C-alpha cells in the first residue's frame, strides 16, 4: 500500500472517530462536563492558544535540555557498562534497582533541594530519560557478536577502531530505540515537575485547568502536548532511517 494511501486511510479514520465522538456527546452518551465534544475542544484551543503556545515552548526547552543530558549520560554509561564486564556485574544491579523506583517519588526531594524553577524540571527530565537509554544501550553492547570483535582485533584494529567500526554500528539500533523512549520520558518528567513544583510551562497550565474544571481547554492543552510528543518521535524515527544508511 502506497504512503499516500496509508495517510489517506489514517486521516479518514481520525475523521470518523471525531464524528463519532461528536455524535456521542450530542446524543448524551458522553457527558460534556467530563468529555467535551471535538467542536468544544476546537473552541477551547482557539481561546487557549495565545497563552498555551509560549508555555509549550517553555516546556519544550526544558525537555530538550534534560533530554540532551540524558542521551549523553545514558549512551556513555551504557557503552561503558556494556564493554566492561566486571564493572557491569557490580553496577548494573544498582542501575536496575533505581530504574525500578517510581521517579515521581523522587520529585518532591528534587523540588525540596533545587526549589521551583528550571533546574528542577531539567533534572527530573534527565532522571526520567537516563535509565531507559542506559539500560537499552547496555543490552545493545552485550548483544554485539563477539566474533566481529575477535576478527577486528586479529586484523590489528585498535580499541577506538573497534568501537567506531564494530560496536557503534551494531549498537546504533539500541541507541535509537533508547532515544525514542527517552524523549517521551523526558517530556513526562518535565510535565510532572511543572505540575508539582512549577509556575510556568504546560504542566502548570494543565493543572490549573484541571483545578478549574475547564474540560474543553484541558483537552485542548492535552492535544497540544500530544502533538508535540508525536512530532518529536516522528523526527527521531526519520533520523533513525538516515543513520541506518551509515550503519
SSE blueprint:
Layout: H1 3-26, H2 38-83, H3 85-99, H4 107-114, H5 118-142, H6 146-154, H7 159-197, H8 201-211, H9 215-246
Q: Could you characterize what this model shows?
A:
This protein is mainly alpha-helical and 247 residues long. It has one domain (47-246): MetI-like (MetI-like fold). The chain has nine helices and no strands. The protein has helices at 3-26, 38-83, 85-99, 107-114, 118-142, 146-154, 159-197, 201-211, 215-246.
Number of domains: 1
Please, what is the average pLDDT?
85
Uncertain parts: none
Q: Based on DSSP secondary structure assignment, what is the total number of beta strands?
A: 0
In the CATH scheme, the class would be: Mainly Alpha
Percent range for β-strand residues: under 5%
Give the overall form. globular
Per DSSP, the total helix count is 9
What's this entry about, in short?
The chain is an all-alpha fold. It has a single domain (47-246), classed as MetI-like fold. The protein has helices spanning 3-26, 38-83, 85-99, 107-114, 118-142, 146-154, 159-197, 201-211, 215-246.
Amino acid at each position: 500500500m502506497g504512503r499516500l494511501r496509508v495517510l489517506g486511510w489514517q486521516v479518514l479514520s481520525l475523521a470518523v472517530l471525531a464524528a463519532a465522538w461528536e455524535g456521542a456527546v450530542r446524543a448524551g452518551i458522553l457527558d460534556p462536563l467530563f468529555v467535551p465534544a471535538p467542536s468544544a475542544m476546537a473552541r477551547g484551543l482557539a481561546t487557549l492558544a495565545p497563552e498555551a503556545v509560549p508555555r509549550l515552548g517553555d516546556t519544550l526547552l526544558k525537555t530538550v535540555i534534560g533530554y540532551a543530558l540524558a542521551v549523553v549520560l545514558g549512551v556513555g554509561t551504557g557503552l561503558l557498562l556494556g564493554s566492561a564486564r566486571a564493572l557491569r556485574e557490580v553496577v548494573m544491579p544498582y542501575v536496575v534497582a533505581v530504574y525500578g523506583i517510581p521517579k515521581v517519588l523522587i520529585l518532591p526531594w528534587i523540588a525540596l533541594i533545587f526549589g521551583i524553577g528550571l533546574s528542577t524540571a531539567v533534572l527530573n527530565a534527565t532522571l526520567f530519560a537516563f535509565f531507559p537509554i542506559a539500560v537499552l544501550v547496555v543490552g545493545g553492547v552485550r548483544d554485539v557478536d563477539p566474533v566481529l570483535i575477535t576478527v577486528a582485533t586479529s586484523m590489528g584494529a585498535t580499541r577506538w577502531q573497534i568501537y567506531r567500526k564494530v560496536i557503534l554500528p551494531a549498537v546504533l539500533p539500541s541507541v535509537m530505540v533508547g532515544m525514542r523512549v527517552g524523549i517521551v520520558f523526558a517530556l513526562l518528567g518535565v510535565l510532572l515537575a511543572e505540575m508539582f513544583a512549577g509556575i510556568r510551562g504546560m504542566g502548570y497550565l494543565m493543572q490549573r485547568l484541571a483545578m478549574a474544571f475547564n474540560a474543553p481547554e484541558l483537552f485542548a492543552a492535552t492535544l497540544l502536548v500530544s502533538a508535540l510528543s508525536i512530532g518529536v518521535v516522528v523526527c527521531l524515527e526519520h533520523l533513525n532511517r538516515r543513520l541506518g544508511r551509515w550503519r
